[in-house]
């Protein structure tokens, strides 16, 4: 099994307040890791720090992506190297069309990999294929990025972008929240179909329901900035029953 | 100059300083775009049912210093005016918008909108906005808004997270900000409009 991500003693703060207090985690290719934990525990902070959000300061610790110093990379380089975040709160970008946005993103990644940019035709064919996977309506892509999308559409749009960019490490931050029952199934099936023996995902969720579809190899509990418990998929069931108090 | 009864006066000025004083007769239509130049435009709606549109886009760099000045007077009723003035200020540039909008007592049932939006791309750039509204009629619909802000940091990060370089992400956001002004250019100036849109959409390649 090949190691994809290694987090060692990661501490991070925002606005001078320490949120992550020594996170340790190793993720190998092909694995699905669920992270659960109470509100405010630092789950989204971990996503933000792994993707290089400048609002957060790393005060201690190291992170390696395939042996390379992840924290030394610019956010866009981390993305091109295959780290993808499905945002808990996707951002609206008025005036930038989904098509223009996605095409720029794809071609920047291809340039990084030393590949030629996709032609307009190839690009549109790829869009069509991936939209189908998420059962997204055609018209969404003529609109500005996330602008006026419903909560569920925004989440679907995140997974659509994931399908377009084909990351090696996908972090799904509460992708299930706000999805209706059908959308949850479509999104989960989409995620499962993108799974390969070479990539891995971190699935942050509050609900066992999502993990019925996306079955995790490991379940971690993040509480007060640290991983306090790790188990297999049964840990999620146990938490559903007893809550975090029961730990 | 005078725009006669029912006539249409439409112009697009690019990189060209503009100084205009216009009297509008009833039912006439004035539509002016100014791109990247100082201007002073005075419009008096002297006849009923006139329509006035003033749009400006000022993208300033280096030491550039641009003043945009509009004086729109609705002397009689039933007319409308719409102004959208946008500045993008980089480096040490200076921008200034002076916007006088007057609706006289007799100008009932006037609809007037004035909007000034500015984007500061550097700490050194400076924008001064001086809107002045004088409304003497009571049965009117008038709005005005002015705002000066910076690029949306969360949007920038979102784009970087998809692999878009920071500079390119900034460019996409700036272009998005500028686009709607250019899109208001009418078909009579379609070639100018497409050329301007192309220069800002070139980012994709
Ligand atoms: N700008 C800030 N200044 C101070 N504290 C902040 C700031 N932003 C976030 N926090 C705090 O950081 C803590 C961790 O937040 P985070 O979003 O990582 O939690 P989470 O585990 O994702 O929670 P949830 O399950 O509700 O999404 C919270 O207590 C939050 O209030
Ligand atoms: Mg969160």
Q: Which keywords apply here?
A:
heterodimer; A: 247 residues; alpha/beta; Rossmann fold; 8 helices; 12 strands; B: 205 residues; 6-stranded parallel sheet; 19% helix; binds adenosine-5'-triphosphate; binds magnesium ion
Summarize the amount of helix of chain A as a percent range: 25-40%
Which strand-content bin applies to the residues of chain B? Answer: over 45%
Describe the strand arrangement of the main beta sheet of chain B, using strand numbers. Answer: 1-3-5-7-9-11
CATH architecture of chain A: 3-Layer(aba) Sandwich
Mean pLDDT of chain B: 95
For the record, the count of structural domains of chain B works out to: 1
Percentage of helical residues of chain B? 10-25%
Number of helices of chain A: 8
* Distance separating the two termini of chain A: 31 Å
Total DSSP E strands of chain A: 12
What gyration radius of chain B follows from the Cα positions, in whole Å?
18 Å
Q: Would you report the number of β strands of chain B?
A: 12
**Low-confidence parts of chain A lasting 5 or more residues at pLDDT below 50?**
none
The shape of chain B, in one word, is elongated
CATH superfamily placement of chain A: P-loop containing nucleotide triphosphate hydrolases
General form of chain A: globular
Oligomerization category of the chains in this entry:
heterodimer
Number of domains of chain A: 1
Return residue spans of chain B where pLDDT drops below 50 for at least 5 consecutive residues: none
Text of the CATH class of chain A: Alpha Beta
Helix-and-strand structural type of chain A: alpha/beta
């Amino acid at each position: 099994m090949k190691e994809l991500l290694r987090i060692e003693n990661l501490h991070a703060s925002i606005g001078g307040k320490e949120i992550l207090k020594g996170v340790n985690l190793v993720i190998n290719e092909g694995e699905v890791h669920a992270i659960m934990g109470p509100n405010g525990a630092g789950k989204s902070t971990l996503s933000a720090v792994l993707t290089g959000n400048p609002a957060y300061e790393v005060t201690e610790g190291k992170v390696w992506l395939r042996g390379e110093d992840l924290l030394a990379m610019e956010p866009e380089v981390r993305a091109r190297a295959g780290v993808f975040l499905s945002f808990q709160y996707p951002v609206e970008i008025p005036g930038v069309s989904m098509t223009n946005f996605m095409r720029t993103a794809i071609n920047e990644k291809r340039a990084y990999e030393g590949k030629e940019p996709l032609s307009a035709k190839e690009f549109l064919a790829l869009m069509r294929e991936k939209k189908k996977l998420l059962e997204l309506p055609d018209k969404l892509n003529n609109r500005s990025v996330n602008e006026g999308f419903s909560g569920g559409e925004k989440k679907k749009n995140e997974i659509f972008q994931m399908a377009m960019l084909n990351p090696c490490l996908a972090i799904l931050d509460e992708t299930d929240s706000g999805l209706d029952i059908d959308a949850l199934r479509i999104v989960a099936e989409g995620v499962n179909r993108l799974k390969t023996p070479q990539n891995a995902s971190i699935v942050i969720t509050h609900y066992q329901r999502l993990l019925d579809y996306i079955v995790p190899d490991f379940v971690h509990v993040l509480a007060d900035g640290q991983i306090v418990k790790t188990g297999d998929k049964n840990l999620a069931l146990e938490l559903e029953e007893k809550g975090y108090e029961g730990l | 100059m005078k725009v006669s009864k029912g006539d249409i006066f439409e112009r697009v000025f690019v990189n060209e300083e503009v100084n205009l004083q216009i009297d509008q007769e009833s039912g006439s239509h004035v539509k002016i775009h100014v791109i990247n130049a100082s201007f002073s435009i005075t419009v008096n709606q002297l006849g009923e049912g006139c329509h006035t549109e003033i749009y400006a886009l000022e993208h300033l760099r280096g030491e550039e210093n641009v003043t945009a000045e509009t004086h729109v007077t609705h002397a009689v009723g039933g007319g409308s005016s719409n102004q959208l003035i946008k500045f993008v200020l980089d480096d040490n540039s200076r921008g200034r918008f002076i916007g006088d909008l007057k609706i006289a007592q007799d100008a009932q049932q006037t609809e007037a909108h004035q909007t000034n939006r500015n984007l500061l791309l550097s700490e050194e750039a400076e924008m001064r906005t001086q809107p002045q509204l004088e409304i003497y009629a009571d049965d009117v619909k008038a709005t005005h808004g002015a705002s000066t802000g910076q690029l949306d940091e969360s949007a920038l990060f979102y784009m970087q997270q998809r692999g878009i370089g920071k500079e390119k992400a900034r460019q996409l956001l700036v272009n998005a900000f500028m686009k709607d002004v250019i899109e208001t250019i009418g078909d009579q100036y379609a070639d100018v409009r497409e050329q301007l849109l192309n220069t800002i959409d070139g980012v994709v390649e």
